Amino acid sequence: MMAPEGGRRGIPWGRRSSTPPPETPAAEAPNEPEAPEAPDADGAPPPATEPTFERVQEHDAAEGAAAHSHPSYRTIDEFPSREPAGEPGYWSPDEQEEVDDATLASPILPAEDTGQARVVSEPRRDGGEEFEFHTGEIRATGEPDAIEFVEVHKAFGRNQVLRGLNMALPENKISMILGPSGTGKSVCIKHIVGLLYPDQGDVIVHGNSIPSLPDADLFELRKKFGVLFQDGALFGSLNLYDNVAFPLRQHTEKGDEEIAEIVNRRLKEVGLGNANEKMPNELSGGMRKRAGFARALVMEPDIVLFDEPDSGLDPVRTALLCELIKEVHAENGGCYTVITHDIMSARRVAEHISVLWKGRIVESGPAEELFASENPFVQQFLAGASAGPLGMD
């Protein structure tokens, strides 16, 4: 039996009675059910009877206990007793959706001051053994959130990468998103800058919903970002100076002298003050990383994203790059987000850590609390141990 249009979750669409059905007097036998009306002479079925509240109850009884097995099922009497908008006595589609949503736990609470939604916890779902270590605990940092993922789902074909991700990255902290290879860390960066959009859910940056922004507003918002890609992503046909100056020439009206002052200052910060004329193929891997970092900083971004900055570097240069990130952040502030699976880098620079596995947050919070976590998966991953929930599969 199909529910009429507007019905959801197997709850029949019906008219609500403002008073409960009258009880059958004890002295009187209950009425016999009426026989169904026969078709008329032309063979047409009798007209449908309006679905009253009493008929809803009869429908539920006929369907049996299985109709009540859904965890969000509630009878109509359990809903708030108020008249919905529209025709009195009926649940409109908007009201029905509101009632359904009220039965589900939500990870979103209103922010106290701004009135915006904020992530407070990754809800623990019944995922069986697959998600038994995903507590979803998000510990407070004392800073407002610069970036929020709200119930984000993303799939590529049949490969589900993000599976209801709730994550918050705080302002004025160096945050790290840690997790095994292939668990969706780099996909998160592409969602933040609007290169990918979620299949479901929302990504919020400084109060702006990325999937909802018009293109012109998205392009303007991207000027707040600096991005350091895995290999530096320098233009092979431009020398080092022109690579770093490129964003300023592309997005601002600054003159050559002002551009030169900014570029030289940033190159000096990353230790490349005497390499202006070198071409990318003349630079070592570490130098290309530092050049990419300088280019990410020239627009004075509020948010800097690092996609595995330590990949391809030896341990010494990785340590030097981590120290450089700390020094530049201490000078400029902002939300720095580092994608990595290198634990030594996390110990050196992370102030906030989010552990991502199988498309969801295992735990998230200040770095010192995560390193002291009792979660078996977090312990194993942050210690780099072989024994634990994470295996080769």
Structure characterization notes:
The model is unreliable at 1-19, 65-91 and 102-117 (pLDDT under 50). This protein is α/β, with parallel strands linked by helices. The protein contains eleven helices and 13 strands. The protein has a seven-stranded mixed beta sheet, sandwiched between helices. Strands 5-4-7-8 form a four-stranded antiparallel beta sheet, with helices on one face. Strands 1-2 form a two-stranded antiparallel ribbon. Strand 7 and strand 8 (208-209) form a beta hairpin.
List the helices and strands and how they pair.
Elements: H1 53-63, H2 93-102, E1 108-110, E2 117-119, E3 137-138, E4 145-156, E5 159-170, E6 174-178, H3 185-192, E7 200-205, E8 208-209, H4 215-221, E9 225-228, H5 240-251, H6 256-269, H7 285-297, E10 303-307, H8 315-332, E11 335-340, H9 343-349, E12 352-357, E13 360-366, H10 367-371, H11 376-383
Parallel strand pairs: 3-13, 6-11, 6-12, 9-10, 10-11
Antiparallel strand pairs: 1-2, 4-5, 4-7, 7-8, 12-13
